[in-house]
Specification:
Elements: H1 5-8, E1 20-23, E2 26-29, E3 36-40, E4 43-46, H2 56-60, H3 73-81, H4 91-101, E5 107-111, H5 121-124, E6 130-135, E7 144-146, E8 158-164, H6 173-183, E9 184-195, H7 212-218, E10 222-231, H8 233-246, H9 252-266, H10 273-276, H11 282-285, E11 288-295, H12 302-307
Parallel strand pairs: 4-7, 5-6, 5-8, 6-7, 8-9
Antiparallel strand pairs: 1-2, 2-3, 3-4, 9-11, 10-11
Length: about 300
């Protein structure tokens, strides 16, 4: 397994919540020995088959879930030729701040961590941290397959949980955030990036968007360190324009070429975010927000939320 022995001993069954025992090529429920979770290429598949959108068989058969494991070559080439229309203004600085806030030997859970998120290099380059990449898809940084609705670790396991561009893709964001709160150590850090003004992406696995206040309420059991727009109105406008143009066709091949056209004619809009990102108006027109906070035993009331 790619997970340290220390964290292996903190793995739990997502159904019974009993500790899991590592036996050769599978994990066994310590309470019910008939319950097994397989290891595929050294990656434990710890999925709640009863409630998750995904099943253990999906991963045993290596079927595509949220990501195409063998992406379309033409689509990949088009993406490489097209300038991006989104600008994540603050991620790099935010991750540098997190890097300085976590103690040496810190344990970091990256929910949706099959691939390295934008700006995360500073965390991955720090050899003092153990990073666990949890996802419902295989990828270069996947260390465990698990559903964020049932994080398979004991209470107070991690020093930090990162959930970048994930909460829009889960069925019950509040349950996932409650799970994050549970597995964090006392005063542990959470860092989330979540969209507001963005069109549907990741096909059928896209469910929710959050305003600034809605996002803060989601993390009401955390003490706020910082909460602000991450991608501004320029990016929101570029996304809207791109999807407006592409909505004129349902043909995949035509859509590929329209993608190049809309990116070439709208990529410059994102640069307005350098000027707009900290303006008060951005809070009502941002493409995405970030939240950085610490686990707390206090709950922000709805009245306090509105006053704030």
């Amino acid at each position: 397994m790619k997970i340290s022995r220390e964290l292996q001993h903190r793995l739990i069954c997502p159904v019974s919540k009993s500790k899991l025992i590592y036996l050769d090529n599978y994990l066994q429920d310590s309470f019910d020995p008939s319950v097994h979770y397989p290891l595929i290429d050294g990656i434990p598949i710890v999925i709640n088959d009863r409630e998750s959108l995904f099943s253990i068989k999906d991963f045993q058969n290596k079927v595509d879930t949220t990501w195409d494991l063998k992406p379309n070559k033409i689509k990949t080439i088009i993406r490489s030729l097209s300038p991006g229309i989104g600008l994540n203004v603050k991620a790099k600085k935010n991750y540098e701040k997190i890097n300085n806030l976590i103690n040496a030997n810190g344990k970091i859970l990256v929910v949706g961590g099959s691939i390295k998120g934008e700006g995360m290099d500073v965390l991955y380059d720090n050899d003092l941290f153990e990073i666990v990449g949890s996802d419902v898809s295989f990828g270069p940084n996947t260390t465990i397959i698990s559903d964020a609705h049932d994080i398979p670790f004991l209470d107070e396991t991690f020093d930090c949980v990162v959930v970048q561009a994930v909460l829009e893709h889960v069925l019950n964001p509040q349950r996932c955030v409650d799970e994050i709160h549970r597995v964090l150590k006392k005063s542990g850090l959470v860092y989330a990036e979540t969209p507001f003004m963005q069109q549907v992406h990741m096909k059928q696995y896209d469910f929710t968007r959050f305003t600034h206040l809605g996002h803060r309420r989601l993390f009401r059991n955390f003490e706020e360190i910082e909460h602000a727009p991450l991608m501004g109105p320029g990016t929101a406008l570029a996304w809207s324009y791109a999807h407006f143009i592409k909505s004129f066709t349902s043909s995949k091949s035509i859509s590929y070429f329209l993608t190049i056209f809309v990116h070439m004619t709208s990529f410059f809009l994102k640069y307005f975010d350098y000027y707009l990102i900290d303006k008060p108006g951005s809070y009502d027109a941002a493409s995405a927000f970030f939240f950085m906070g610490r686990k707390s035993d206090q709950t922000l009331s709805d009245r306090e939320l509105i006053k704030g």
